[in-house]
Write a structure and sequence with these properties.
It is a single chain. This protein is α/β, with parallel strands linked by helices and 285 residues long. 39% of the residues lie in helices and 24% in strands. The protein has a single domain (72-283), classed as Vaccinia Virus protein VP39 (Rossmann fold), CATH 3.40.50.150. It has helices at residues 2-17, 19-23, 25-41, 65-72, 78-86, 102-111, 124-136, 187-193, 210-215, 218-224, 234-237, 246-253; strands at 45-49, 54-58, 92-96, 116-120, 142-145, 147-149, 154-159, 179-185, 201-204, 227-232, 256-261, 267-270, 277-283. It has an eight-stranded mixed β-sheet with strand order 5-4-3-9-10-13-11-12, sandwiched between helices. It has a three-stranded mixed β-sheet with strand order 6-8-7. β1 (45-49) and β2 (54-58) form a beta hairpin. α3 packs antiparallel against α4 (65-72). The termini are far apart.
Length: 285
């Protein structure tokens, strides 16, 4: 009971501090209740992200990303709004760990027809929805790949988590027994194969594999110095035997400085890695 109360308190604290709840608590709460009912009835939803004029299909799963996107929409994460500050028509955005594609859809509209979005999602169950959302919006500037980006080409086992969007190449006690074999590749190799020589922004949400993604992207990081948005989540690196702050340390060695985006879009400098949140890395050398 104590653990349950602590978990409920943590979730209530997260909801109460979220920008969307602060701006519209009744609407946000109503959406969450509506999503709970939809999940009981196994009724998926297609909702609109009005800010960018795109629609997103969300399967009816309570655990995972769908309820957050349904409830928070454009305010899903502060870094989503930050894209408008670092992307503009004609630029190139890389979405590593795209899941259902909320970042992909927003970036596609921001960069426009002359820009490009390249999305990677290794989980079959999420990639299927990503493709559906790309087709739902008739996006012609998006390339999508069912790949896990690491430091090299190969094969790996992707372990499936009860929370969709949290699948990982490493697992702990919270994972199911299910897994699927997937293909891996480095970002540098993919960009070379499709003749992309400049990237403006990279977003990574790969459940602990961020260090491997960075190692496989050193060429583009050194040549383009893209803004990098990534998650710092030390607990996810342990099952993989990686440094808790490996991506941070590698980007630091390449001349990047680090910031977090608050709920209202302001950047705040970070001198040491925060835990369990997204970071924006900006090249400043």
């Amino acid at each position: 009971m104590e653990g349950l109360l602590r978990d409920l308190g943590r979730k209530w604290g997260y909801l109460r501090s979220h920008k969307c709840f602060r701006l519209a608590p009744v609407i946000t709460a109503t959406r969450l209740i509506s999503w709970w009912a939809r999940c009981l009835l196994h009724r998926s939803a297609t909702t609109t992200l009005t800010k960018w004029g795109v629609r997103i299909f969300l399967p009816a799963h309570w655990r995972g990303i769908a309820k957050l996107v349904f409830a928070f929409r454009e305010h899903y994460e502060p870094e989503l709004g930050y894209l408008e500050r670092v992307l503009s028509p004609g630029k190139t955005f890389i979405d590593v760990g795209a899941c259902y594609g909320i970042y992909t859809l927003a970036a596609s509209k921001i960069v426009g027809k002359e820009g490009r979005v390249i999305a990677f999602e290794p989980a079959t169950r999420a990639f299927r929805v990503l493709r559906e959302n790309i087709e739902l919006n008739s996006l012609t500037n998006v390339l999508s790949y069912p790949l896990a980006l690491t430091e090299k080409k190969g094969k790996a086992w992707l372990y499936l988590h009860p929370n969709i969007g949290c699948d990982s190449l490493g697992k702990d006690h919270s994972f199911t027994e299910s897994a699927e074999e997937i293909a891996t590749e480095s970002l540098d190799n993919v960009l070379r194969e499709i003749s992309v020589d400049h990237v403006d922004v990279i977003k990574m949400d790969v459940q602990g594999v961020e260090e491997w993604v960075v190692r496989g992207a050193t060429k583009v990081l050194n040549s383009s110095h893209p803004v990098v948005i990534f998650e710092v989540y030390p607990e996810c690196t342990a099952p993989l035997g990686l440094s808790p702050y490996g991506a941070w340390e590698l980007l630091d060695s390449l001349g990047y400085k680090f910031f977090v985006v608050d709920q209202f879009g302001a950047l705040r400098r970070e001198e040491s890695p925060p835990t369990d949140r997204n970071v924006v890395a900006i090249y400043e050398n």
